[in-house]
Amino acid sequence: MSLAIRVIPCLDVDAGRVVKGVNFTGLRDAGDPAELATRYDTAGADELVFLDITASSGDRKTMLDVVRRTADCVFIPLTVGGGVRSPDDFDRLLRAGADKVSLNTAAITDRDLISEAAERFGSQCVVLSIDARRCPAGVSTESGFEVTTHGGRRSTGIDAIKWAVEGTKRGAGEILLNSMDADGTKSGFDLELIARVRGEVHVPLIASGGAGSLADFAPAVRAGADAVLAASVFHFGEFTVTEVKQALANSGFPVRATSR
Amino acid sequence: MLLDYGSGNLRSAQRALERVGASVTVTADFESALDADALVVPGVGAFAACMRGILEVRGDEIIDRRLKGGRPVLGICVGMQVLFSEGVEHGTAVTGLGYWPGVVEQLAAPILPHMGWDTLRAPVDSKIFAEVAGERFYFVHSYGVVSEDLTGHEKTGQPPTVTWGTHGADFVAAVENGPLVATQFHPEKSGDAGLALLRNWLHSW
Question: ipTM score of the complex?
Fold first, then answer.
């Protein structure tokens, strides 16, 4: 295996501003996604994800400006998600400088959206983001994992593993798998969930949710993740991208050397 | 000049080239594409769609006339793939621009697309990989050229310098052939290594 395991910081953006506090020293504007993206690029991030959590659609134009400003100065891949509902939303984000666009809730309510986007723009830029959890009482799926929406607050009853398979059949070129059980716990990734999805899909898999220590990343890769994503542990400076890569390298996984 | 035929994220390629000192125009205008000091042909998505887009703006004629005059052309990703004889997707073959023999076909690998930062094997006489041959570059593709022999084609004459990558099997990661240069990976998305490669290319003519 020579492909490097990708380490991906995720930034939540609300009305053009980064939401969670970011603990980098010397930032001119700690809320500016473009400036933070530059910092993460310098810190060795292999890709970046912007998640637009803006509630009002009127503020979505702000996101396009953020993407433009980021693409102007950061030369690593950028995935943008949040509120994408149509192929035209895709088009606007790609033209602004996004390389990939992630679909979540809209793909559940309109499954053709995945295929339409894949046909028009290519599978390589269609990321299916799945917020999965173990079925709570009263919900049952074959795999025992279900898809949620609204940040894990709403049950759909859809089997998360089957949804991943369907999404890739419809043309998604990558799966961003968020464990809603592990998210925020800092007790490690949901390895069973990762392994179950890896066993069924043949596109790259990004594991997300639960990273709390440097030791958490290698098991996620061993379970089948091609990339690992984290947010707060990076933003609050608990550890750096380089430290995560070092930890992965120490476990025998290839990583992209951080030259700067 | 970046050839705009409706494919992909042109903004990143434009900004990356500007970052290394080029002055960039994004257009599909026939005359300006012929006149530009250098032409970049980007491309993402399907081979067939890219070929269609290129033919619509007479890109085949533009590239041909430029190369006859020894004027630089750089193909990126599917912009590289279309330079080969043929592309096969979902069982359907589409004729390419044919500068090199070789069929663009789906890579035989357990996980596709081949997505992420990978190493490659550049020959010592490569100009574009000067100082960065040991770096990783960003790939995102499911198709590639796996043929061994790219030499002896009538359109390009001189034998190309070929850089190989591996995903499942060996595939062509870059080709340098006089004024015609192409990369399967995205230099504009490959961080400092990619910028260095673009700088090398700009200084190679």
Answer: 0.95
